[in-house]
Amino acid sequence: MDSSPRVPEARGRESAVGRRDEAQSASLRFGVLGPMRAWRGETQLATGSPQQRALLAALLLREGRTATAAELIDALWGEDPPSQALAAVRTYASRLRKVLGTEVLVSESGGYAVQGLAEGALDLAVAQDLATQAERAAATGDLVHARQALNTALALWEGEALAGVSGPYAETQRTRLEEWRLQLLEFRLDMDLEQGCHAEAVSELTALTAAHPLRERLRELLMLALYRSGRQAEALAVYADTRRMLYEELGVDPRPDLRELQQRILQADPGLAEPSAPAAEAAAVPVRPAQLPADVPDFTGRSAFVRELSELLESTSGTQGRVMAVSALAGIGGVGKTTLAVHVAHRTRAAFPDGQLYVDLQGSGARAADPETVLGSFLRALGTADSAIPDSLQERAALYRSILDGRRVLVLLDNAKDATQVRPLLPGTDGCAALVTSRARMVDLAGAHLVDLDVMSPDEALSLFARIVGEGRVAPEREAALDVVAACGFLPLAIRIAASRLAARRTWTVSVLAAKLADGRRRLDELQAGDLAVKATFELGYGALATSHARAFRLLGLADGPDISLAAAAAMLDLPAEDTEDLLEDLADTSLLESAAPGRYRFHDLTRLYARACAERDEQPPSARDAALSRLLDFYLATAAEVYAIERPGDRLVNDLGPTARPGLRFATESAALDWLYSEADCLLTCVQQAVGTDRIRPAVDLLWAAKDLSESGANSHQFERTARAICEAAGAAGDVRAEGRARTILADVLLDAGHIERAEEQARLAAVLVSLGQDATAVSWVANNRGLIRLRQGRHADAKAFFIQAIEGFRALGNRPFEAAVLGNLSQAHLGMDDIANAVEIAGRSLAAQAEFGRTVRLATSHYVVGIALTKAERYGEALEQFVEALSIFVDHRQRLWEGTTHFRIAETHLAAHRPAQAAQHAEQALALGCIGGDPMRGNVLTVLGKALSELGQVDRATACWRDALSLFEETGRAEADEVRALITPRLWTA
User: How many CA atoms lie within 13 A of 196 on its CB side?
Assistant: First the structure.
């Protein structure tokens, strides 16, 4: 039968039927990467008995080719078909034709075929297309799209391929498709490792090697992932386990690739990690005429920009001319705009044999060049006699364009003020092009290709520094040289000045220069050499600002954060958001400020130093500077309190925070509130640190209280701890009992989460005295809870119980029901420690019920987590896992990464207790990748459980490596668990 689409007739029943069949075939979809299924639109079709499904699968997998009756009989029954096999095949085909349509299942030459399906109708074909896309993307180095394509392909599998389909053909295809799936998975995991996702891959590879213990490629990938994650001993242990298993199961050695990888790991081969850099491009041949300034001999870096601009300029040669502006948000003075433009112009001179024109338009100075004067000099350079040069700007511009007509000339317009100055100077003919540099972004220059020029990368900066100073002086002091270029903010002008000063002083070392630049208050004064000075470059831009813009520039420079949001800037400037945005966008257009992202702004490091110097000189009285920082802290506190209230409804802690003079932001959703908190984390914590030594200690401490999620989630734990420690000392020095008590309560909380039990105990003890003296009821109860948790970690369960009861009574008296319920969960764990499992389960249940009243909060997740622990102890593993899964879901939604990891650890414990080691190992690996509440001691617990799971899976060497790592952590922290781990390792040492 002809399977090509039929041309419908003008009228008649047959035409209508044909159209209906074609429409039906177009809406058909089939799935073989899982149970054998068929759909028409969104409706699943009945595909009949297992043999009938086997027939359909055999036809689909032939991709439109005809299968003879004999082939189908062999596919369904193999060497032992029933006597009526042919009749059965015809019956199955007839039934399927009724379901699928006569245009889909066709009969040809005594056989059958499935034809006329729409593109993408078969999930296997979709997977094959995606795999092909992935291979092509990988071949071009586009690993991101390759991974996306492979993940999409792998997601099409819904369990075992051809599940529920009988017959030898289906069994063969099942094996083939499973092997292909594993190959795709290995391909994708290989790319995961190429993109640095080593820690994430370990968990998946651990599960896969448990499921496919003899698949050497997976073992090889696991070894590489472990090695790149810094777990060399485990990587080598995987090899030992593999070698032993292959010998015991198959009597063979590992394949050469695996043996070679082991040797490279033993030798710490650097080739296991980094790609090589691209080669430099050759320079162009110079031609006349040329007004270009000399190219700098030590031009360094900027390869991507050089390539982009060169290609654009060369592509315009002989075609429609283009204008390109090398200026951007990051185009501050000294960033190297002119140097880059001159270098590119020299590279592309061969594309413009009729000449290159150059002018400094002096746009950053007090008097910018007049376009009329510039055109006069250009016309003279192009051979026009003085007597032939017109007087007016319009006439000069017209003559200039006429002379350039038919010629190939490059025009370099350097240091332009704005688009108005540039427009009359642009060539208007084919074959010509212009390069424009400016501190202002030429968004209103029609047809311009805008390039944002940023500071150098650290490697580029170091290379430039070494080329000027000399590699011989820099190489022995590489770290000091990195300090120098970092102090220069990787700004090319600053690096050139610093390097020139060092090159001129043979008695100086690089360390001497680094020490001079380390003082931020003196740095700008140090960065001058001859007629070059960074400060002078900034002064040109600052001096041109209007009064309101200059004030905004000065005040915003006072904030220490890496950037600042529009809302925070508005609070700091005490202006409406709309007016603030206008000011900040204008500053960004002049390159004194950078627009880091929509609604966010930042200074270059040296520009910030200059802005602060201006503030100290021009912002009077000094109290105006303090008031701006107070408004910023006030804004952060008010908004963080709003986030805390959304995250923890019913918690009365926000009522105990100090008052704020202005309201913070309001959020429509919990997700938006968390987005704000985590995006502002660095700025918020820096604002707290900036309060040290001022009268802003109390609101700074309250801000830490309200932003405790930044520590508990693990997102900013180390910075949070440093900030809490600094504010503790500052509060103590100021003699503020209330502030110091709260600060030490926060610090104890942070140290407890990090697993530093002894230090947490010291801070909690001091905090208990201070909050009692300050009659700070909320802090008193919080400290009691912390001290209970410390006793719990120390195994002193009766003492822990007493502290928890004290905390519960305190929070109950304060009417803080969510916190009271949270401490109930902790009390449950104290009962578990005393083997009072029945009461522990009951108390944990009460905690869960109480938290459920306040919605799907973090504390509800913690209650689910506590119930799961109690049920695991009660050996009710299925119920425990349900609780952990619910807790995990909430922690993920609330971005509590450390709690996610801790919950994975508890799930691993439960699976191990239920004798499911493969699942236990997978969840333990996820816990290691995410991290856990409790720091190194908890990591030791995870490694112990992972080792036990691996041991049960027969991976003894890797298990021992895990236990050794755990033992090291326990010994470093003085934990009693070290004895248990030694007992696990010792028998295996004797065996070895």
Answer: 2
